[in-house]
């Protein structure tokens, strides 16, 4: 029955609202880190990360006691980057950084310690081996050395001939031929050192040089899939004094290959070592080993990357990536080339629609069109790729302008890997530069500007495969800035050189952005050049739209210089709320204003207020809406003294929201009503549930009101914000709904065999009559749509008006044993926005167990055929067929599931039921039946044989009939033994349950112990009965010697057997009562009321009755 929920009308008066109204963002995402993990007290801590572009990021730092010690709010730039800096606290311990935007949070930790952070030693790389002639200088190269946490301060060389050298790339000539050991010692900025050793082979002039071994480079690591060709690359191998003649590969799975770039296919998933051995033209060899990770090909269910904003890219390009069919609400990783940690570019989250979207920045990568973007659904492990993507070359210059003798750094990306690079400087240098790229096609080269006139010159880089690109460098007046990207209000330090000495540069006149927008210095004063034509100024970036601009400084004729700057955030104000009645209080917050304290003026109507910016360019001011006409929008204007300004409209109006229900489970049907909204042009509006759309674009059809039903989507229990957006006036009105329970699926059991018909109950799905359900069965490798196979009443399952349903699913006969997950989803749609309610559960498909035996091996005419049937799962329906010695079918019958009895975890069809209750389904051997071997078979609905065998039909004397009757009793007792054994187990379970209760249950436990003992005694008694039946048979054999005595014994025995039959049935009924009473004892034990003692007493009495009955059987058979 539907739960009653209190209806609450929420009147959102602007007078009472002071909290920020969040604007929902789809696929919100954020991450955070600190520049180090450990700090000393008062050391600067830099908090940074990436969020959605241009969103406000809230930052909190909490101490080990979870008390907040630092808060900040920063605006992410157009790429989502943000940063905040604080001093490390003086108290030692672990501190937690929390960051949040609407719809996403993240955290990280750092430690404040009194132990200085341990320095990481540098790594020396002496390169080599080297070779040369006696007396001729050899150039050495230590540029491959590095220091992970600092810089290398010195390079010390020991050339092995008692001569030392210093510097990154020294030269040295050896006086005598020989092989010398060369050591390079590097020292970092913390005084730590590291040594690397190589050799220099020196030959006599004119003598043939000694061979230098080749260097193998197996590249890698590699990755791929089972059954898919994987390409390997040994092109990085080299021979400094000759050529490589052969490449021999061992792929780690028994396969081999030759050549520079062979391919190989693996049959099994694993991580394999791949070894490359190269041989040079002097038969010298070298080997290198890489790894290849081979994964299983994962069956896809439509998961894909559908769109990438460009497939021809350069280093640093920002690409938009969109995809579909990802698991809703789960994390998606985006990779470059390989699905490895080193290739991870970004993470995002699947939307309720199953779509995903994020941006990635193209990393450093070698030239070519064999690059791919990969996406991985973390919840399922599925991967998908998009490509190929072609990487083109690119160079950057730092700086891009300067004077004669300035140093310029050229960085190259996207060239051929391990290729020579020719660098030319048109008009700047007389000779070209030479460099070499690394594995990613990257190089870095530095040159000095020559003695040239003021002009713009071209720098060009070309690799060995003629891939070429260029960039411009300007010689003349030069500007250097400390920042090239930032929002409006950023303070930029700018240094100028080459200007006319002692010249005044007028702020807002001679300094502009984009050629037209005036730029002010942070103190508002003019700039004057020095006697050498230099100056330093601090400029405030004015309010302009996002984009790339040039800062222009006009120092007079021929002295105009520019510097590039990217504005990634616009000046803006937020009104909270952005509506209200006259007299209502409203908070105004400003972002991306001047990052220096200046006055801000706020205007609304005829009234003004002032505020002051902080170092982040932010400010807050509370204002009161003045007497203005209701129903109209008015601009709130805010501007500072350094050309930063913004405008936002406020609606003077009363707005009301009402929910029919403010709490309930997933799937609840809720009516959303609004008053006071704009009906202009149809009054477009929509609604979201946090970041999930629940009502699409709708129109206000009556005055300024609306009313729409929607259904709560699948989310975790908790309180969520519902936001209604009035698009005509860009008004965002919120209220809250508390989700009390998730959607659930409850199966009758979770361990089932093939062909088992599993009943499933669903609750808290869409509260709407006849909503279709979608069903999936999946495991780690495959997914099956089973929507047509889950049925109720012969049709597909649909919800009731309360969001509930019952369905039946027959486990397929052909799926393998193991674990599977069954998922069910309902979908509702309001104005083209779909909302899902879903749940799932896990089952284990197990083997079926069944034991079927015929009651006796020999029957006489007039006997009833019976069976002992025991199964792990009951059959809905099965069939019995009996044939005579001539193979004629003399009997067939259908047994339905009403015959099964449950004892413990097993299902039984007791023999006595087959005699007493199966009046239409039992077979009695006719009086004229043919003697001989008969056969029987039982099979299920799928014609699968459950059990089969033979039995004998014979003519018997009265004495033999007595023996058969005794054997029948023994068989019945055996069946009863099994039942009583299970009863003992059940009572034992009761005993355990009661034993785990409180001390008040001690008496109940003792009673249960006695009941179990009684059941055990019953089992012993049955064993004794069986022994007695054997003695009875022996006595009957002896009675054959005397006919009269035998006849008397037969008469007496037959009477005893009949009594035994009756008594055994009484014992069976008593045992069943004992089981029921024990079950009652277990149920009552939860409450520990006086009913416990009554139930357990009944159990004891029933068990004792069973024992007494068995003793009577024993006595009669013994007699």
TrEMBL record:
Domain PKD: start-end pairs: 121-209, 213-301
CDD domains in UniProt: PKD (cd00146)
Pfam families tied to this protein: PKD_4 (PF18911)
KW Transmembrane helix (keyword) present: yes
Key word DNA-binding present: no
Transmembrane segments: 1091-1111
PROSITE patterns on file: PKD
Residues spanning the signal sequence: none
Entry keywords, A to Z: Membrane, Transmembrane, Transmembrane helix
Name of this chain's protein: PKD domain-containing protein
